[in-house]
Write a structure and sequence with these properties.
Chain lengths: 424, 423
């Protein structure tokens, strides 16, 4: 069996929670040898909703195929161990706050002095500069800062903003960006012999995921400017968050005519249709049996109250039609007409989904402590250098001895380190 | 001259809407020369919300730094032109449905015969196999199919699910760029090209890795209970909104009160805090001046009495935070070491100092629509900084240049244009 495209690449990971661990898990799936450095108590995600000591689903789903090396990094002896490992390391990934790497002597300048062609990824929440540089930032905070949360516009029963719950999108997106950056830098190093420092941030990823909203284009932005002016006025008047959302929401008016790209409730559940072209829109109308044109209407004018009132009534009638049949009945009709559609599935039922099985998106793994598990496999299929989950996540410190021996330490050194609580 | 790590790499893009265009824009940001192949009437995203003919903000935000080749790929003459171009490129990225590439003679096998070390990146909605392989899938459909939509767990006043942002598309764009770079690295090492495949579905599942994962030692009973409840609900014909409530109980989503990782209303807006460790939770309690046994050994989230106490505390804290402004709480939590932010609107961020001081905004000039400010590349690189230099191309701007580069004469190009093969 061929190895992954990063076979032979060694990665030293100093990260926790989601973004860094997911980034390095992608590298492990690609065949890189990933050594995860953890504090003696383990990284925080091991403790989050743990079902046995030091093991949690959150941790196990983001750290497969890695080795675990326990180091008390505040100890100079542990820092020496890192420095002795570096000549064998191609890539270092760090996601501490900006001042921490220097304090632990694992910053880019220190480590690249030991190995000049090192690739070093420095991931922070908000970037190295600016008023927020030293703030701690978790996914929820970045959702709030970046506009993702307000852009979602969902509120709870009291009108407070609701976070995006289905996924920690700033974290996961940044994990992809980290792996991508490492691969681009490896390619450059292969061509030129040159290593480098890569900086990524949760904030930048969150902005990138809202591409056309974080995009000023004076030639097209008259509406946006009106909206921002309404928002400024509402803020000045001390409006509630719900009122701010109403002032801001660009889609509220458009939604009036939307029967083409949205979920619908059905007789026994819900489905979503996604039609984004005139030809697909026509198929949607045929499938539903409506002559309401909505967004396809040449007279489409959601700013006009009369048009909007008619549209709302028509959309309500379409919703009623959708509620008159089961999801399965509608899926048969939409399939026949060529309308992109799907039942609204729950994430937990996807483990048994035939489409998932047919494409081998699941990998069965065996964990040293907690036994069998199944999880989403590598994101990419490679014909010549197939990706593979290289094993489950490691129990805390499983590989400390092996990694230290690789750096040239003997059994006596390791025993001494353990006694001094430098390693675990 | 481009300065990124992919400087000199040539990419031929057959994609549309978000995932493929974003993936190729990320490659262009890294310095690759990306030729976007578009139908003579333009790709659909040019037409979605166009503010001048064939130009829209959504298109311009996903296609910067590319060249545009407007060509009818179904035309026999065009296929010859595409095959000539393929011999000169390193990477092909495609996001048609599985059967379309073969029909147009731009499938992996056909193109690899012309260029054996080609990196061919094939993105589909649901993967090449299985009952859904030939279905059309847009982001919203894949979100419904993958559980992302129900994971959000929100419905409107009629009980209809609400739509999350286009996460399946955006993350797939990143995966495309990631797979391309890994395959280029392997090719630089060994000279070997290959087929790289991804799908919107596997990316959507990856975003929910933890929920999706099955771990009998940790969650067998809860999972079994959920699956049985789902089956019962479907047999009964329970509405989506009602089943969501049932699901929340089984999976204990928000069963107890939560004051540590959530957004709060303030007197003049809203803030969010994110405390995920015992030490950060202690800091939240210190700032608010409240007691809570959340991190005591006796804490049991499944105990109804505890849940009642948690809900009472939550209501008290909500009222406390609502009594002061966002600025007040931002300062108080910041001083107390708690991760915090006001809930911003995206559009107010273009001149936020955190964003401008880190150089996250990029200023470009579009040749038809003038100046624009957009989000720059997702990361910096010290030796090969990605430096996008050009906005998205007008439709077919580069058709002639590209065909001349493939060896076509002006007369041949004129003939193809007259036949409608190119624009």
């Amino acid at each position: 069996m061929a190895a992954g495209p990063l076979d032979g690449v060694t990665v030293l990971e100093f990260t926790q929670i989601i973004a860094g661990p997911f980034g390095c898990q992608n590298l492990a799936d690609m065949g890189a040898d990933v050594i995860k450095v953890e504090p003696p108590e383990g990284e925080p995600w091991r403790q989050f909703a743990q079902f046995m000591p030091g093991e949690a689903k959150y941790f196990q789903s983001l750290n497969r195929g890695k080795q675990s090396l326990v180091l008390a990094l505040q100890e100079p002896a542990a820092q020496e161990i890192v420095h002795r490992l570096i000549p064998q390391i191609d890539v270092v990934v760090v996601n501490y706050r900006p001042d921490v790497p220097q304090r632990l002597r694992i910053d880019y300048d220190t480590l690249s002095a030991i190995r000049p062609d090192l690739i070093y990824v420095d991931n922070t929440a908000f970037g190295r500069k600016g008023p927020w540089a030293h703030r701690p930032g978790y996914d929820i905070v970045v959702q709030a800062v970046s506009g993702l949360m307000a852009g979602e516009g969902k509120t709870d029963a009291h009108g407070a903003p609701d976070l995006i719950r289905s996924t920690a999108i700033a974290d996961y997106g940044t994990g992809l960006a980290i792996a991508w950056g490492v691969c681009a830098a490896l390619f450059h190093r292969e061509r030129t012999g040159e290593g480098q420092l890569i900086s990524s941030t949760l904030l930048q990823t969150a902005l990138a995921f809202q591409g056309s909203s974080v995009f000023e284009l004076p030639a097209a932005d008259a509406m946006v400017q009106m909206r921002m002016e309404r928002l400024r006025q509402a803020k000045a008047a001390g409006a509630s968050y719900r009122e701010l959302l109403a002032a801001h929401n660009p889609l509220a008016a458009l939604a009036a005519g939307n029967i083409y790209y949205r979920p619908f409730a059905t007789k026994d559940g819900a489905l979503a249709i996604g039609a984004l072209s005139a030809s697909l829109w026509a198929k949607v109308r045929t499938a539903i049996g409506t002559d309401f044109l909505g967004m396809a209407d040449p007279g489409f004018n959601p700013m006009d109250a009369a048009w909007r009132a008619k549209a709302e009534a028509a959309v309500a009638a379409v919703e009623e039609t959708l509620r008159s049949r089961t999801t399965a009945e509608w899926m048969e009709i939409f399939d026949r007409e060529g309308v992109p559609a799907s039942p609204v599935h729950f994430p937990e039922e996807m483990l048994e989904d035939p489409q998932v099985a047919a494409n081998e998106m699941l990998v069965p793994l065996e964990h040293d402590l907690s036994g069998p598990q199944r999880q989403v496999g590598p994101i990419l299929g490679f014909s010549k250098t197939p990706l593979a989950a290289q094993g489950s996540s490691p129990p805390l410190g499983r590989d400390t001895d092996a990694v230290l021996k690789r750096a040239g330490y003997g059994d006596a050194d390791i025993a001494r380190f353990r006694e001094q609580k430098v390693v675990g | 001259m481009a300065s990124g790590p992919l400087n000199g790499v040539r990419v031929l893009e057959f994609t549309q809407i978000i995932a493929g265009p974003l993936g190729c824009q990320l490659l262009a940001d890294l310095g690759a020369d990306v030729v976007k192949v578009e139908p003579p009437h333009g790709e659909p995203w040019r037409l979605q919300g166009q503010f001048i003919p064939l130009e829209s903000k959504t298109f311009q935000s996903l296609n910067r730094g590319k060249r545009s080749l407007a060509i009818d790929v179904a035309h026999p003459k065009s296929q010859e032109a595409i095959h000539r171009l393929v011999r000169e490129v390193d990477v092909v990225v495609i996001n048609y449905r599985p059967d379309v590439a073969r029909r147009l003679h731009i499938d992996d096998e056909t193109l690899r015969a012309l260029k054996p070390d080609l990196v061919y990146v094939d993105n589909t909605a649901f993967g090449r196999n299985g009952p859904w392989a030939d279905r059309p899938g847009y982001d919203i459909v894949v979100q419904a199919a993958s559980g992302l939509m129900s994971g959000v767990g929100k419905v409107d006043e009629h009980g209809t699910p609400l739509v999350p942002p286009a996460f399946a598309d955006y993350t797939t764009g990143y995966s495309i760029a990631l797979g391309t770079c890994a395959a280029l690295f392997h090719r630089a090492l060994t000279g070997e090209g290959q087929l790289v495949e991804t799908s919107l579905l596997v990316n959507a599942l990856t975003l929910q890795g933890t929920q999706f994962m099955s771990l009998p030692a940790g969650d067998a009973t809860q999972r079994a209970e959920f699956m049985q409840a789902l089956e019962r609900a479907r047999k009964r014909g329970t509405s989506y909104a009602d089943f969501l409530k049932e699901r929340e109980v089984i999976l204990r989503v928000g069963a107890a009160g939560n004051i540590y990782y959530r957004a709060f209303l303030t007197k003049d807006g809203a803030i969010a805090i994110g405390a995920l460790s015992a030490s950060l939770r202690a800091k939240v309690r210190a700032v608010l001046g409240v007691d809570h046994n959340r991190d005591e050994p006796d804490y049991n989230a499944a105990d109804p009495a505890q849940q009642a106490r948690d809900r009472e505390l939550t209501e008290r804290v909500e009222a406390q935070i609502r009594a002061q402004t966002s600025a007040h709480w931002e300062q108080a939590f910041e001083r107390g070491g708690v991760p915090v932010s006001p809930v911003h609107f995206t559009q107010e961020l273009l001149d936020h100092p955190q964003i401008t001081e880190n150089g996250y905004v990029l200023r470009l000039e579009h040749e038809l629509t003038g100046e624009q400010v957009m989000v720059g590349p997702a990361w910096r690189m010290s030796a090969t900084p990605p430096t996008p230099e050009r906005a998205s191309p007008p439709l077919g701007r580069d058709t002639d240049d590209i065909l001349v580069g493939a060896g076509y004469s002006e007369a041949e190009i004129a003939a193809m244009r007259a036949e409608g093969a190119i624009r």
